[in-house]
Structure formats: structure tokens, C-alpha cells
Amino acid sequence: MRFWTTITLILLLSAVGLTYEIAAGRVLAPFFGTSLVTWTSVIATILAGFSLGSALGGLIAERERAAAVRSVRLALVATAVLMALSPAVLGLIYALGARETGGMLLAVVVAFFPASVLVSFPSPYLAKLAVEARPGREGSSLGLVLAAGSVGAIVGAILAGFVALPLAGSVATFAGCALAVLLCVPLIRGGTGGTGIGTLARKPGVVLSVAAGGLVVLATTASGPLCRYESGLSCIDVQRQGSAVYLLSDRVQQAAERSLAEDAAPAERLVMPYTQWIWARMDRDLGTDPKVLFIGGGGYTLPTMLLASRPEAEAVAVEIDPLITRVVRDHLPWAGATIAQVGFEAGVDAGPEGGEDRLGIVHADGRVFLNQTDHRFDAVVMDAFSSGSVPAHLATRETYARLREMVDGPVYVNLIDAPDGPLVRGIHAILGELYPHVEAVQGPVSPRGRANLLLAASDQPLPDLDALPEGYGAVRIGPGRAFTDDRGWVGHR
User: Fold this and answer.
1) Strand order in the sheet with 229-230
2) In terms of DSSP bridges, do strands 235-241 and 244-249 run parallel, antiparallel, or are they unpaired?
3) Under 8 Å between Cβ of 256 and 247
4) Taking residues 79-87, what's their average pLDDT?
5) Phi, psi (5° rounding) for residue 450?
6) Cα–Cα distance between 417 and 475 in angstroms, integer?
7) In sequence order, what E strands does 337-450 have?
8) Taking the C-alpha atoms of 32, 441, 465 and 359 in order, what is their torsion angle to the nearest 10 degrees?
9) Half-sphere exposure in the Cβ direction for 316 (13 Å, CA)
10) Percent of the chain at pLDDT above 70?
11) Mean pLDDT over residues 205-230, rounded?
């Protein structure tokens, strides 16, 4: 095998390995959410697989050359099959009842560890060939092998994050990794002489294995994507239940609106009780022409409610994923019509513009917007979620201190946590440091032990509401540790 062909194979397999690793973290989100713990589990498991694969591959590299070639080729075919099947295996483990931290760890190991072992299995054999290909230049050859592995990892990370996952989706990305691995099989040879394809053609068993692997890879793509719409950030579905349309992100209900006659009262369109409470609080607390900031656009139901009820009001909604905005425009009639009529694409430094453009939509990370904008607002709604949990960098003292500087009125926060759980206690502690008046209410507890917990903080006493949504009531939040940028929220697990 020529030296540069070997280096190319090392680079390609390293790129596939990193693409697979990032895709594994993304495909895990619809089942177990996105948090520091889930990403740590994925990275640790796959790196452990890489390590074990390299160790086992080193033993194979010392065997007789023909036997080593056979083992490496079959390992690559098995790698392709396992990579293509990873999403299906993950879904099966989840369907069998894997939940919480233990279930997540089991799913990660079963779905992703075997392919991680096998994708790194050929590396020692390839490194040995590269060193042997240039006698007397072993040091530089080994250096290029290591460099090729690092460059491949960089290419794989960029490919996964900027191209494959946003444009093709996770299932297609896994299938693409599998096909790339299968393409390496003909190039695995025992040394000099002959072409890899010619050598492979004289091995009917390997040919059949490659063909069978290819069929499995193609079959996995027939199952379709994990969700109806997928970007690198979100896995989005739309469901209709009676007169209500629900928007789900990573299988978690994020928003909903009710389809009613045009002359129906706007408040009747709010489906989710937590939005009913936040709107009741806003309706009681704010004046006739407030300028309100929404961190987390979601289904845009609250901005739409504000603008429908107060003709002089203005809003800015910060939504990190443009795909969510497009899905809302296409599938949520009330919010979609509002975006079409009064919405405009705004920059990170944008504020309300007045006139017909009353809803500024900023497609950016909420923390980036807070850091860069110099506009002021009369209130803010913090309703940003990633797979059912607040992103860690939006749940810190520094974030809310910045809000304190730029928002003159109340802060409304929606959380999902266990009753008096660590997330709500941490955010409550932050608000208690910054505001003299903090109110908390809790919704019904789900079978998984979590509920919507809603906080409102203000410089002025918050007047009582006439009624609360069904199942909601005031709660007392215990003392907690205020999260910071240095020591923040780790996510639900």
C-alpha cells in the first residue's frame, strides 16, 4: 500500500470517527435531552471505544499480513453496519424502557460503543504500513500518521457540525459515515503490488460482506429521519390534536396554539397552561405599550398574544434556530400570520423599530444577544429550552444581572424541573439576589416527576392574579446555589 494512500485512509477514518461522535450526541437529544451529563457520557464512551479499538488493532497488526488484512476488512464492514444501525438501536433501547441517567448510559454504550471500537481498529495496521513504506524515515512517517489523525478529526467535526447534521440530518449522517467506511475496504491491502479492488475481487467472501453491509446501510435510510424537520440544533415535529396544533422539539412539547374563528378572543388560543399564566401575569403587570423581550421564540405564541392584545406594544423574540421560525410560519396559523404581517428579521443589536414592524425576530443565541444589544425593554420572558432543559449559559447570575441592567420591569421565567428541584432553586436564588419581589407557581407533576415552575421577579410588589390555570398553585422555593458562568447548571439527568 502506497504511503499517501495509507495516510489518506487514516485521515478519512478519523474524520468518520469524529463525525460519528458528534452525530451520536445529536441523535441522543430526542430521547434523553441535551445536557452536560449526556454529552460527557457520549464523549467518554466513544473515546473509550477508540482506545480499546486501537489496542486490539495493535495486536492484529502484529499477526501474519494476510490474516491482518482479513481482520481489518471485516472490521470495517462491521463498523459500517453498526454505524448505520446506531439510531435504530438507540430507539429500541429507549422503547424497552431505558430512562434517566442509568438508561441513558446503557443506551449510549449499546448504541455507540461497538462501532467506536471497530472504527479505530484499522489504525495501528495502517500506521505500521506507513512506517514500513519509508525505510529510514520512520520518525517523520509516524509524525504524519499522527497529524493525519488530528486533521481528520478536525475535518470530521466541521463536516458534522456545519454540513452533514444541519443539511442531511442525523440518520443520513450515520448512513454517510457507514458508506465512507465501506469505501475504505477495497483500499486495505497487504503491502505492495496490485490494486486494492483487484485484490478484493479475488475474495468472494469479503465481496459478499461488503455488499451485505451496503444493503444494510441503504436499508437504514429507508426508515426516514427521526423527526419531521431536523437541523443541527433541533429535531422538530408538529402534531394536531383536535383544534390544537403542538410544536415539539426533541420530543418535548415546546408550544401550542388553538385554531379558532377569527373573532375569537386571543387568550382562548393559548393552549399550554404555563403560557396562560405568563400572559395573565404580563396582562396584569404591563402597560398599554410595553416593549418586551422574549428569549426563546419557540412557537411565538406569547409574542403573538402580546401584539394581538396591545396594538401599541412591540416585541423582540430571540430564537437560536431559524428552522423553528420557518416551521411556525408554515404550521401554526395564528403565530405564523403574526410573523408574516408584523415580523421582521432583525440583527443581534436590534430593538423594536415601531410602525408596522412590531415583532423583531433575531436568530441568535440568547446570551449573545444580551451581550451585544444596547436597547432597553419594559419586561422580559425567559423561555429558552434545549431538549427540555434551560441551556446552562442562560441560567447564570451573569445572565440575569445583564437583564437587570437592560430591563426596567418584571422578569418572567419558565422552567421544567422537579418540585423544588436544583434548577428552580438556583434560578430563584439568582432572582432573589437581584429583585426584592419574587413569585413562584408550579404546575401538575408529570409521571417523570417534573413540572412547569414559573417565576416572576420585580422591583415592585406583584399584584395577585384573579385565577390560576388548572393544577397550578403558589409554591415556596427552598434555598439554592446561584448558578454562575464558572459553576453552572449541568442539565436534567
Assistant:
1) 229-230, 235-241, 244-249, 252-258
2) antiparallel
3) yes
4) 93
5) -120, 160
6) 13
7) 343-346, 359-362, 379-382, 411-417, 437-442
8) -30
9) 27
10) 91
11) 68
